[in-house]
Amino acid sequence: MTVLALDWSAALATLEWVFLLYFVGINTGYMCLTFVAFQNMRGYLPRRALDALPQVYSGHELPVSILVPAYNEEATIVATVKSMLQLDYPHFEIIVVNDASKDGTLEVLKREFDFHDFPLAYRNSLQTSPVRGFYQSARYDNLRLVDKENGGKADALNVGINTARYPLFCVVDADSILERHSINRILYPFLEDQRVVAVGGTIRLANGCNVSQGFLSRVDLPKNPLALLQVVEYLRAFLFGRLGWSAMGALLIISGAFGVFRREAVVSVGGFRRDTVGEDMELVVRMHRVLREQGRPYRMVFLPDPVAWTEVPEDLRTLKNQRSRWQRGLAESLLWNWRLMFSRNGGTPGWVAFPFMLVFELFGPVIEVTGFVLLLVLALAGAISWQVLGIFFGATVGMGLLISLTCLLLEELSFHVYQRPRQLAILMGMCVVENLGFRQLSSVLRIWGLLKWIFQRQAQWGEMRRKANWQQPR
Amino acid sequence: MAFDALSEPQVRFAIGTAAASLGAAVLVSVQVIWLRARLALQEHRSALFVNTWKPLMIDAIAGDPVSPPPLLPRQRRSFVQLWVHFQETLRGSAKKSLNQLFIEVNLQAYVHKMLAGGAMDARLLAVTALGHLGDRSEWATLVGLLRHPSPALSLVAARALCMIDASRAAEPVISAIIARRDWPHTRLANVLREPAPEFIRTYIQRMEQAATEGAPYLPRLVRLFETFSHNRLPSCLRNMLATSNDLHLVPICLRLVRDPQDLDLVRQRLDDPHWQVQVQAATQLGKLGGPDDVAALMRLLSSREWWVRYRAARALQELPHMDPGLMQELRAGLDDPFARDMITHVLAEGAVA
For the whole prediction, is pTM greater than 0.95? Predict the structure, then answer.
């Protein structure tokens, strides 16, 4: 018994150091990212002064193909396409790819936009599931529809890439609403620098907002508490996480809900992988790896103000599925591209961002939840006092709160999208509430995703129960 | 666990972290609230200002007599903003009427002050205002700003210089175009939308000089030349089109061809080993070619490259004598199924457009 007791003590002492190092590491990392994000934003904002002036197009704008993969999106697809048709940009086409939806996605599209058969000369740049048919809208000459056999989101995107006419393509989720100037803004880095191969935009929450005739007519916070908690989470992920990594040239994620890629670069690395649910992150990490192996100069950039509004889960089950998919996607992206971390040319993406993602994003939830549970068990067993438990919990919540509020400050300094005082008060409250349960819940859901991935249960399209109550009746 | 007592170093560390982070969180919250309050006040004042001044500016644009009320010091910035906003949408005499209003409220000195020491957004506004006013008094400052690290500020300075005196601006602005690689092409194209003949002459001279020297910035100058309206290609570009193997330069030169006299240079590029060049040659032939070019374009329909087939088919469709019936006849005569598919494709596109 004595030996056993000694082993427990040694194990706990080791764990103590693991938790402490993890705590210091993650918070130092986040603080550094916050600092870099502030600097990046300071450099970025003055440029926006020019955007406020009336825009005159010169005819030199880069044409772009907007790809909208759709699977069972009957509720939102029409509003999404309508919002895209009204984009303030002179040269773009929209390609909706229906991945054999089981609902009425294809029918509502055909009815609403008057699609007719189109004899497209198809390019097989990327291998995909068979295509059933191509359609062209009789009303809009820049709107096409592809109907294909079911093959997943990545497969649908690859079909879109094969169909695209232009050298740049933009991926947008079928439940997203783009702001009118978003395409103009997101293409800016491609004009500035020939080396840019991908640009990510910001995702904000459509829950609670109103969309009318394809326009975002009113910005508001969600009424649903679960969605409300995600507002601050998204601010943190985009405004400081991606902005910080982007400034260091180490952006490993560009959201599949809104990002622009150079077609040739994506085709050269093999397009989206069809056997992952995190096809967006996997592509970005693979592009880093392959382009670095090839010694090709490139840049991937995140911009904070081209915005796509999207619906987030409002019930626990959908949230669980979403977080599970994200964690699985993260695990696959890192596992399949592990050589980036050990590559001689790994640079900041391979040597800094990759290990950060591995330790703090992939395994972080395991360490965090284990730490909380262990402290709780020890307190219940009387091994530590409740006071000490409270102190450690306070330190964790305090740091989380500081980071969330700093993001809110960044938002206030830059875009202040939520303009009413009531909204600001709610958001500040959410910064507190989010750290007192939601982040812990999110960690548990991510562990669930990790376990599901380890036991290799097949993942499918990210099916989400859409309420689409932000759309006004047409 | 080793740390139960409050004196343990780990616990002390946690206490310190909790206290510091919570204290900092309170400070950040206060700053957020203060920023919001300040913004709300600014927006309220701005709305009041716009309600008063917008109708006055519309009257001034219409040429009606305007009696502007006294401008409070804190309203000066709002005035310049609103004034610039209107100026950006105007052309011709309306701009002059609005300039007169600017002089009446006597804000020139204020704009010079903004230019000298304001924040970045204030300087951008001041430079834009000087351009619209045609104010020559800050010429040297504006030329100096062409070298400013901010691409936005330097580009706005270039635009202001061109608006004030395009001929005089040619030398410094073209030198800046050569030196600065951070000016986005589309923004630059906007700056150079309506250049003076003297500006274009200087530009062509610099382009010819760069071609002679084989300067690395030549592709950038050539690409930007597309912005200017021109007929015959300058001789340096004709030479490039005839002899260069530069994969970046040749497609740009092809895109610049406007005059049928230069068509032979285009035709010879249809057999270029690079498909990117063939694509551009076919596109240009569609715009300027005629019945004699059908055979060459038909040949390109069998290219391995999708884009070459597509552009060749589009070029055939765009030829002046071509109609859908003739296209169908051409299609019927093809053996290559890929070529036939491409004709079908562009015919369907043509039917939609």
Answer: no
